[in-house]
């Protein structure tokens, strides 16, 4: 695996040397890039000796290896240094990711080789923050981390322990190099096992109009569906993401279709489903809608209106009745309480191949959270995915999808 290691200027930069050593020892091909500030903590010679490759610290300097990785012959021309390495990297890891680095990446800054490479990356990017505990807890840093997670960066949160300042301790200590390497290997091990497979993912929450201003809706942010779409695309799938009322950025390489109501979601999904190999119905679709929505705005001075509701057609059940041989259908079951019984009932009643169940009574997971904990239910049994980021959960869902396709279920 080709690992590009970006090293910003922080006291924990010395641990990046150990990370490089462990990665090379494990058989990976490693190239290192540094910020000018990092050279005050660790010199190029240390990384060059370990990796067997030149180290770059500026986007303006030529690469003596001409973009080649250890074990490869140099190219015939000198490439653009800030693009050549990231273009062929399997994983890009930034360690230690300082508070300043996180801020610049969150703002889309590209003023050194480390940040420029992150902006141009199409491979998974792992950020391993390290800083003073007060800096980590600062609202600006908290917001930057949330922004980066939303954009698909994999953040390995720092640990509790002694910090650089004498006598200080707290959360801000860089996770150990072997832990970083394990996370990098997990991401890099992803194969293109969905190459060319047409995957449709729905995400977000529908809004059913009461009048021209008000609506019935739900708390779904779309994070889980967006993460599934991104994970499928990274493994080679041709992904169509049908998003209802979500403000999240569309993952790179994914076709986005924006909808509002359940009726619009149904129409878009039915069209896309005709050419799909896999449908993942992660959207939170309304069960009921107003019978007679008002075109303008209801005047509150007229008193409290009477709101009559009607059921919304079950989109997934309707599509399951039309599915052809080889198509895989996945539904989501957000249930209030730790029981999979209702979720398994949906699997059978709707003739699905898999249901992803999560307990929304736990406020730390599910709607609008960054993490999730789910149970994958198929006709062959159940598999629990432990509490993790929604990106990690999405990877587990894709793993199960691949198994379903290979088994013909």
From TrEMBL:
Annotated source species: freshwater metagenome
Q: Where is the Flavoprotein domain?
A: 1-157
Domain spans labelled DNA/pantothenate metabolism flavoprotein C-terminal: 194-403
Pfam families per the record? DFP, Flavoprotein
Single GO molecular function? FMN binding
Concerning Gene3D superfamilies, the annotation shows: CoaB-like, Flavin prenyltransferase-like
Transmembrane ranges, per UniProt, are none
Q: What is this protein called?
A: Unannotated protein
Output one GO BP term.
pantothenate catabolic process
Which keywords accompany this UniProt record? Decarboxylase, Lyase
Q: Which GO terms describe its cellular component?
A: phosphopantothenoylcysteine decarboxylase complex
Q: Does the keyword Chloroplast apply?
A: no
